[in-house]
Amino acid sequence: xxxxxxxxxxxxxxxxxxxxxxxxxxxxxxxxxxxxxxxxxxxxxxxxxxxxxxxxxxxxxxxxxxxxxxxxxxxxxxxxxxxxxxxxxxxxxxxxxxxxxxxxxxxxxxxxxxxxxxxxxxxxxxxxxxxxxxxxxxxxxxxxxxxxxxxxxxxxxxxxxxxxxxxxxxxxxxxxxxxxxxxxxxxxxxxxxxxxxxxxxxxxxxxxxxxxxxxxxxxxxxxxxxxxxxxxxxxxxxxxxxxxxxxxxxxxxxxxxxxxxxxxxxxxxxxxxxxxxxxxxxxxxxxxxxxxxxxxxxxxxxxxxxxxxxxxxxxxxxxxxxxxxxxxxxxxxxxxxxxxxxxxxxxxxxxxxxxxxxxxxxxxxxxxxxxxxxxxxxxxxxxxxxxxxxxxxxxxxx
Length: 398
Known about the structure:
Shape: elongated
Largest sheet: 4 strands, antiparallel
Mean pLDDT: 83
């Protein structure tokens, strides 16, 4: 099962932030309350957010509100990871610790842009910490195939993180905030994965059936015929099974119609159908939709939202036997006739669709409950500048 949209949004915001998370707890039983002041949030928004995101937050209250909600979600989920000992699992701990070193190395590079790490220094670090690289790879097996490629970068980050600590950069406020968010991102993602393990048990078959019976309008389906007069030339498709003489000349590509030409042709076809000519025959002869043309314009049953909006709206506004006026879409002009309407049966495909929707709702409800009970104090009032502030020495500015 994929992450619900809300969970993705919550986790995804950290990629834009480059991470937050003040070290708040090490105890698995009693997480310490996390407090972010207005000044903290201003540093995060004005120093860590990308320019476009920052500009949007400066002018859009809803964007600012979503930013706060996402931060609270990530911090709350990271607290749960601490509380349930997920943070102490080797892979999670390794990833979280590495994010701390990443943040420190970024802070060091910001303050010392010419502070490169020599090969001698990297080798020296490796010799002084002989197990660190192997432990990292064992805890993160997905990196094994690229181990040689990333080891050099790994050692450079470790060396610069040590330099940052010696210079006291880990005590600077923006660096601490960056560390907190980057670490929290790792823990929140680990907790989400843990929740997903039980996602298949969140919804029962009875709940699926009940939802279907109470929301049958969501499962309406239409079977229709249509003729498309396109405003761009359809691609010439070759049939790989058709035997042709190599010397036989192919027909010239069909010329694209202008919008007005397509409209006139479609109106002419609509008038002919109304005078009694066969819809299917005209579709075979004139439709530019390669998927239904050979079937006389007939399409299999489809549900709401599966077609482009204009086509969808027209098809579901008609009863069986009705034919539309011209319907314009991005593809050209359609003539649609509804052949049949029905409620989709509660087959396996429909059950899976309902279950996925209910699971997502249950998942989001669970996350909301976690956030509401979390030990968080996050200020609601803070200022966002649409333009970058002056650089803060020793801190990353992403």
